[in-house]
Amino acid sequence: MKPPAYTIENHAAVYDFYRDYTPHKTFTRNAYRLLHRIMQPRITYDECSRQELPELLQRNTPMIITLNHLSDRHDQWTSAAVASDVLPEKVGDIRVLAKSTFYTGELLDEMKVPRHKLVRSLAQRALTGFVNNMGTMPVYRPTDQSSEQRRLSIEAANSTWDTLGELLETGHPVAIYGEGTADTQDPRYNLPIKAGIGHLAIQTLQEGRPPGVIIPIGVSYPEYTERTNRKGKTAIQPSKLTHAHAHVGEIYHLQPDDTVRTIQKQTARVLQDATSVAFMLQQPRYLDADGSDISYRFQ
User: Fold this and answer.
1) Number of Cβ atoms within 10 Å of the Cβ of 104
2) What is the crossing angle of helices 150-169 and 11-20, to 10°?
3) Helix, strand or coil, per DSSP, at residue 41
């Protein structure tokens, strides 16, 4: 299938494409396994979750996987490494929301890829092919759009949830960073959960569909550094990326009378619990911009 033009004006065609798109599963599974070997995450489970996961897989229950967001450049690789261990049967079927900038050239600017037309075209084509095969699909966040495009971003968001709802129903787990951003002064505590995960989860509660579950995975890296991020803000971000600790927390089973607000609240609860366990077991170090240990601030 030929990829569409990834403009927000063309969002209907974009999501039509991803509704039917199938990654090259051999490539995807090998890539996930390779990332697992490189990233070497340690994974622990809530006792009930360890028992429930095989049953959920057997019943083909719609799964929404949510993780805490610590780095907008590295979390996706850690997440793939973790998924290779937690849900190996679903690798190749998992769909992951990624910022639309992965598809529209802005990421190449940040990577300082030369602006030569041919070089940029080949680089973007390679990047798009790779992330598509990793199971990603774009989300047009209002914060990434101009003021003139805000209305279109709302329409695109509705198309996103509709498409993901259909994918969930046909056996595709969906992974989403519920916080929506990685900017934090204290990575032990998650930022507020956005409404998007509620809108997505509600799709599984429509009449005739099996209710879904939310699987929280809290992640902690071994070391963090205080630095200025790409937005010019000071944040505490991971500086050692391998050997992260991931904890699969209490699985939340969606209820027929759940609202978007209820789902936000329950997701915040189970994800924070999973994050807290991951940090407790990891016991990371914290450094300032000069490399001095500032772990005492996080006691």
Assistant:
1) 18
2) 10
3) coil
* Domain spans, the chain: 8-178+191-229+242-298
Q: Does residue 27 sit in helix, strand or coil? A: helix
Identify the DSSP state of 293.
Answer: B
Supply the pTM of this predicted model.
Answer: 0.92
Report residue 19 as tokens: 């509704």
Q: At 133, which helix (H) or strand (E)?
A: helix 117-133
Which CATH code is given to the segment(s) 8-178+191-229+242-298? 3.40.1130
d(CA 141, CA 66): 17
| Sign of the four-CA dihedral 238, 244, 245, 247 | positive
Token readout for 126 is 């390679």
For residue 71, which amino acid is it? S
Q: Is 294 in contact with 287 (CB distance < 8 Å)? A: yes
Segment 88-144, tens digit of pLDDT: 999 999 999 888 878 887 767 776 777 777 877 888 888 889 999 999 999 887 666
For the segment 175-179, the average pLDDT, to the nearest whole number, is: 93
d(Cα 273, Cα 238) in Å, to the nearest integer?
20
